[in-house]
Automatic annotation (TrEMBL):
Top-level lineage group: Bacteria
Organism of provenance: Streptomyces yokosukanensis
Keywords: Membrane, Transmembrane, Transmembrane helix
InterPro entries, per database record: TPR-like_helical_dom_sf (IPR011990)
Sequence intervals crossing the membrane: 7-27, 33-55
Protein name: Tetratricopeptide repeat protein
Database matches in Gene3D superfamilies: Tetratricopeptide repeat domain (1.25.40.10)
């Protein structure tokens, strides 16, 4: 729940910032000189890119949560079997062991979205966020029946 609240607060702050920047861009365009209109258009591009990025990330998180809920209903969510340091951090060797098992499972069933979901969790636990995201995107695509890039 804490992560959801943090995400919503961050998204709200970003939307506020995009509105603020957008109004400045409109004000620059309304000034009417060639230079201010050029700057105004350039300033308006930033909130558009930001809103697109925020929308895509929100869709990704929503879909990943839907897959997690479906997997939980099937009883297939990965069990937290990781050892932790006294400070509460995941032990690196433990994460590597679990990752090796998840990777082998995924190589055995490369078309199963459930394996890719569990692999994404293992990547995340091993602190490899870019690969975790790609594995989750693949799980989402497989679940939706969309073509998957190799």
């Amino acid at each position: 729940m804490r992560a959801k609240i943090t995400y919503l607060v961050t998204a709200a702050v970003l939307v506020f910032y995009f509105v603020l920047v957008g109004t400045r861009g409109v004000m620059l365009i309304q000034s009417g000189t060639v230079l201010t209109v050029t700057f105004g258009v350039a300033v308006l591009i930033l909130p558009v890119i930001g809103l697109w990025f925020l929308w895509k990330n929100t869709q990704f998180v929503r879909r990943a949560n839907q897959l997690a809920a479906e997997l939980d209903a099937e009883g297939g969510l990965p069990v937290d079997e990781l050892r932790r340091t006294p400070g509460g951090r995941i032990d690196r060797d433990s994460a590597d062991e679990v990752f090796a098992r998840r990777k082998a499972e995924t190589e055995t069933s490369p078309d199963d979205w459930r394996c890719w979901f569990r692999l994404a969790v293992a990547y995340h636990d091993a602190r490899d966020t870019p690969r975790a995201r790609k594995a989750m995107q693949r799980a989402i695509a497989l679940h939706d029946g969309r073509p998957v890039q190799a």
